What does this fold into?
Amino acid sequence: MKTELALRERTLSLYRYPQRHNETLQAWDAGDEYLINHVEEMQLAPGKHIVILNDNFGALSCWFSHQYKITMMSDSFIAQQATRHNLQRNQCPDITFATTMDPIPADADLVLIQLPKSNRHLVWQLSQLRSTLSEEISVIAVNKAKEIHSSTLKLFEKHLGQTHTSLAWKKHRLVFSQANCDVKPLVSSNTRWLVDGENIELNNLPNVYSGESLDLGARFMLQHLPQDEHIKHALDLGCGNGVLSVKLGQLNPQLELTCVDESFMAVESARQNLQTNLGAAREFRCIANNCLDDINDLDVDLVVCNPPFHQQQAITDHIAWQMFCDAKQILTSGGQLLVIGNRHLGYDGKLARLFGKAKVKVVASNKKFVILQATK
Ligand SMILES: C[S@@+](CC[C@H](N)C(=O)[O-])C[C@H]1O[C@@H](n2cnc3c(N)ncnc32)[C@H](O)[C@@H]1O
It folds into this structure.
């Protein structure tokens, strides 16, 4: 796996986060290289302010920090951590970090975007750019050519302004746009809906997992969450909109709740949903983190987890594995980890390796999912 980005007589050493010994995936792609080459040829004056949205692991932020003032805006805690580590590794100057809930800096001279996976997140970002930028500021986005559909370009035209694309280079394409469509009020892009058969209302910020409707795994898990007055503290690992925590809180009025997700918007959605559904007096905390990095001081009786099996475009089970290992660390003796997964993912083997085969049991299963309980 390549870790040296060598371009235009400069070399950067770049790693994904968390850094893994057996990593097979690079921390940048041809889209980053295409954008870097294009911007270098624009000969923007040194010191100008470049705002970079959704930089994956910090390749763009590291590259341009050399000559420009940089604001890196990302909804991903992992992307921000990767960028921090890569900046340090390459002795780059400091940059400013922001989430995509923050306002776009009004003094931006150029905006670069790695197109986000979710169109709702894209619409939110375009609409924020439209309300902040003047027409002469270039906005340049990049993605794999096959991911840039005519519908993507229509979103740019509708929410930002005039848009055209480049020729493809190494299967990637650039999208050039400027803020000149008719001004509309800022699009909130949040969705709000009631969960069928439950007394739960969920507000979902634009980049929250399964923000349009309830995840099928979560639906099954809702039917099997425990009601037990002996559980004092539960942690929802990869909480998304917090639906599992809300239900746990409703079933167990004594419960202290902690929600963790790597998406800042998920953490904020969970916070709002716990507050709305359980009331402001309830004790809970919502934390953005990569699994439970550096969290060692919690005593938790129950961890619930509907793990992700993608990191950005790549399918992976390393996050589920880290979640299970971290959960075991913070569980009290006799504490339980409740995991839901597609049957084919083989979480039973992983949990048996960690907790011992005798300590893992199937709580429920249907054609698609299995819910497993591991006891420490
Ligand atoms: C399958 S979704 C489950 C969401 C919610 N708990 C539910 O059941 O609908 C997995 C969640 O894990 C989060 N996630 C992914 N990688 C993570 C990581 N390294 N650390 C913490 N959360 C992560 C994702 O942002 C996503 O919200």
Observations:
- The CA atoms of residues 150 and 309 lie 28 Å apart.
- The longest strand covers residues 331-342.
- The radius of gyration is 22 Å.
- The chain has ten helices and 20 strands.
